[in-house]
Each structure stands twice: as C-alpha cells, then as structure tokens.
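Re: that backbone. Tokens:
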C-alpha cells in the first residue's frame, strides 16, 4: 500500500493511538508531508513518505537526560551516569526506512508500528554505527545469563559459542561480520 502526502496526518494519529501512553501528534508543525509525534518526556518520532509513497523514512530524536533527585545515593548516581552514557542524547537522531509495498497490502500504520519495534529501543541504547543494535546484544546476554542459571543454553547465543567475545589467534574482539549483514539504521548527531 502507498501513503500519500494527505494521508500522513491520519496515519500519524493511528500510530500515536497504537503507541498509547503519552504519544501525541505535534499540531504546532505545519501539516506538510512529515508527521511528528511527541512524548511527554521530550522524545519524538517523525516520518515522511519517500519515493512516491512506496517507502517511509522514520527517525527518532533523543530527549534531555532525566534528572536525579537531590537525595540520591552514590550507587544511584553511578547507575544514572551509566544510563546517560548509553542513551540517545538530546537532539540526536536515529533513522530507519520501511517499504510500504508488501504482499499482504498492509496499512502504512501497521508497517510503521512494526518498524518502530526495531527503532524505539535506540532511545535507551544508542547505536554506535550503521546496523549496530545494542538492544539485541543486551537481550541475548540477559537470556544467556538466565539460561546459565537454569542450566540450559539457548540456541544461537554467545553461551553456545565458546570463543564469542574472547580474543583468540586470528579472531578480533568486537562485532562479528555476520552481525553486520543487516544494515538498518543511521545515527546522526
């Protein structure tokens, strides 16, 4: 299905309603080809049609760092500092694109919501390069830790691969080439 310039606002309202919470359509920006959704904490989601409405470009924009109360402990301050270091900074953007041409002829709002499932975690775990999705690594690490506690090993995790993340002859530490095959986003300062 295609998205027309006039259908952008309707689609944005449907996306905001589906996201729930404090997401609302920003009515202060002109009703042009781009929709902007705002969260009460300052985060934003925007999208615009590309290539005659066959594709939609989505991007999120980071919000200001959350503040700490005056009576926080040193441990809470360190946790806050670590969180701020990995989140998408205020004003920084992370982009993705999604094709609206599908075999099932889905509504644009459905496709946008599905794409946002991969995009929204970047608010709390900023990507360092194109295709980097640290929230997936975080999930895999937590799953591996839980499986280790239970005495099981989930298929395809680092726990199953004895040299994953370890230095060895001829194998550098860092992202594996197979992890970089799915390039989906771009972080822009």
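Recovered sequence:
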């Amino acid at each position: 299905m295609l998205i027309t310039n006039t259908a952008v606002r309707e689609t944005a309202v449907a996306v905001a309603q589906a996201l729930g919470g404090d997401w609302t359509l920003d009515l202060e920006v002109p009703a042009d080809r781009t929709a902007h959704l705002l969260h009460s904490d300052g985060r934003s989601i925007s999208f615009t049609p590309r290539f005659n409405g066959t594709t939609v470009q989505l991007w999120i924009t980071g919000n200001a760092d959350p503040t700490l109360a005056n009576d926080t402990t040193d441990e809470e301050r360190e946790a806050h500092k670590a969180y701020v270091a990995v989140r998408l900074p205020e004003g920084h953007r992370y982009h993705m694109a999604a094709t609206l041409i599908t075999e099932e002829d889905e509504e644009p709002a459905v496709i946008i919501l599905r794409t946002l499932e991969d995009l929204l975690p970047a608010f709390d775990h900023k990507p360092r390069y194109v295709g980097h999705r640290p929230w997936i690594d975080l999930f895999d690490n937590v799953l591996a830790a839980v499986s280790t506690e239970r005495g099981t090993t989930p298929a395809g995790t680092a726990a199953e691969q004895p040299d994953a993340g370890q230095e060895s002859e001829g194998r550098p530490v860092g992202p594996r080439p197979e992890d970089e095959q799915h390039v989906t986003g771009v972080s822009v300062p």
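The domain at 5-127 is CATH 3.30.1460 (Yope Regulator; Chain: A,). The chain has four helices and six strands.
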